[in-house]
Specification:
Elements: H1 4-17, E1 21-25, H2 28-38, E2 43-47, H3 53-61, E3 64-68, E4 76-77, E5 82-84, E6 99-103, E7 116-120, H4 123-133, H5 161-171, H6 174-177
Parallel strand pairs: 2-3, 5-6
Antiparallel strand pairs: 1-7, 4-5, 6-7
Helix pairs in contact: 1-5, 2-3, 2-4
């Protein structure tokens, strides 16, 4: 199976959400990490009630973290232009001029077992993030990586063709298209600041 199916999946996701581009990744958390690295963020703002891997990114990237009370629904900002939209599933909901990160984990609306995507309307962001997601390789190049002049640090966070194929099949399924969409919010998560690992901020 070729990586062409990943591009097909990215195009379908971008079309559904209304962004110009999408970068498929192996999970939402890694999509957020790539976005933070790309923008050289030095701080993340995290709701007290969300998934625990999000605040852990501050430790991984050695950046500042601030917990806030936020009664969010569907999505929230972790910087002024990075949006954690892991639980969002709504047509034409892309927020312009942001890096909006989706999840396709097994509990999410589009259940692929694992996976995510970064939505953007910026061609330069797409180009760099695509390379970063796959070991710095030239996006869409047919040249083997050993013949490329790699000039971007990469992180091996790409979506596999097998996962993308499942996504394309599900997106084409009439039952999936017509299913009722659950609304997610802060209420679906515990208060992270009560966990020992986060008690000191």
């Amino acid at each position: 199976m070729s990586f062409g199916i990943v591009k097909t999946f990215e195009d379908k996701i971008a079309e559904y959400f209304g962004s110009k581009y999408a970068v498929a990744v192996d999970c939402c958390t890694n999509g957020l990490e790539l976005s933070l690295r790309y923008t050289n963020a030095d701080k993340i703002i995290v709701p007290k009630q969300t998934y625990l891997s999000v605040p852990m990114l501050s430790n991984k990237l050695n950046i500042e973290r601030e917990f806030i009370d936020d009664e969010w629904e569907d999505y929230y900002y972790i910087t002024n232009n990075i949006v954690d939209a892991a639980v969002l599933w709504k047509q034409d909901s892309y927020i312009p001029n942001t890096l909006m990160v989706l999840s396709f984990q097994f509990k999410k609306h589009l259940n692929l077992g694992r996976g995510g995507a970064i939505l953007t309307d910026d061609i330069d962001a797409w180009y760099t993030l695509k390379g970063m997601s796959y070991d710095g390789r030239e996006p869409e190049s047919e040249e083997p990586w050993a013949n490329q002049d790699i000039n971007t640090i990469g992180y091996h966070y790409y979506m596999t063709p097998e996962t993308a194929y499942t996504g394309v099949q599900k997106l084409s399924n009439v039952d999936f298209q017509n299913k009722e969409v659950k609304k997610w919010s802060y209420k679906d998560y515990p208060v992270l600041t009560e966990f020992n690992i986060f008690k000191n901020g």
